Amino acid sequence: MIEKMEEIRLRLLHLFPVDEIGEEILFSYNDDEYEKAPFFNLYSSGNSAQANLVNKYSVVKSNIFCEACGLKTKTLESSLILDTSKLKNRYMINIDGMFWVVSEKMADLMSKWNITGYHFKEVIHRGKPENSLPAYQLVIENTLPPLSSSMKYYYFVSEPKERCYVCGVRGKINYPYLFDKTITKTHTNDLYLLSEWVSNGSSVYHPLFISQRFRKLLLEHGVTRDVRSVYDNNYGSKDWYMTPVFLDHY
Q: Global pTM?
């Protein structure tokens, strides 16, 4: 497959006046796989720029993660600071691809549903005082176990420069996530972080995972519709996109 993709890429570059050819790797999942998954990777809490904000005010410390490719780690040196009015009627937003902020109504629902594995830190409002809304940084307390040794990784054929052979993180596609079957007995909270690092292109972070129970509650109470692809017609500006994990005994 890799050789064939490279052949197609080179032919396209020869036939058309373009400089680069990109790829996209997509995975589809059936109903049974959604029902059996103990956890889901939360990719986004809304198909909108308003659900994915850039940090402008918080103090963030950057350190070099890999000298070879330049990936960095980012650590908050202060409370999260943002214009909390951006939450408006949203349940949760993401900051810089790695920090999650929930609204008061989402915090209330999580308490009502007895969601486990997290605590909150108050977010500081930056903006007009009259526009301030209660907001909380979601701090995850535990990580999932290491991925299964049977896990397969993928890379873009057309972007070899994106791949780092030193840290092994940059350019690697980590999904579908595969775990040992014991995870269902040893990890019973509703919220976890992936123990492995993932790259967003410039920094590394640990993605957020939610439990099957939490996902069903979100659907049942209308927080999000059941979105199973970034190309679904029902993937709206406030819908959460989640992908299921697999257990290696399927």
A: 0.91
| Angstrom distance (rounded) from CA 24 to CA 156 | 8
Q: Return the pLDDT at 96.
A: 92
Residue 135 burial class via C-beta count within 10 angstroms: exposed 0-12, middle 13-18, buried 19 and up: buried
Decide: 124 and 81 in contact? Cβ < 8 Å.
Answer: yes
User: Using one digit for the tens of pLDDT, what is the confidence trace for 121-172?
Assistant: 999 999 999 999 999 999 999 999 999 999 988 888 777 778 899 999 999 9
67-99: b or e for each residue (b if 16 or more CB lie within 10 Å)? eebebeebebeeebbbbbebbeebbbbbbbbbb
What is the distance between the alpha carbons of residues 181 and 248, in angstroms, rounded to a whole number?
A: 6
107: left (phi over 0), alpha (psi -120 to 50) or beta: alpha
pLDDT, tens digit, for every residue of 201-247?
899 999 999 999 999 999 999 999 999 999 999 999 999 999 999 99
Per the CB < 8 A criterion, the answer to whether 196 and 174 are in contact is yes
Half-sphere exposure of 24 (CA within 13 A, CB side): 4
Token couple for 221: 């109470």
d(C-alpha 215, C-alpha 220), whole Å = 9
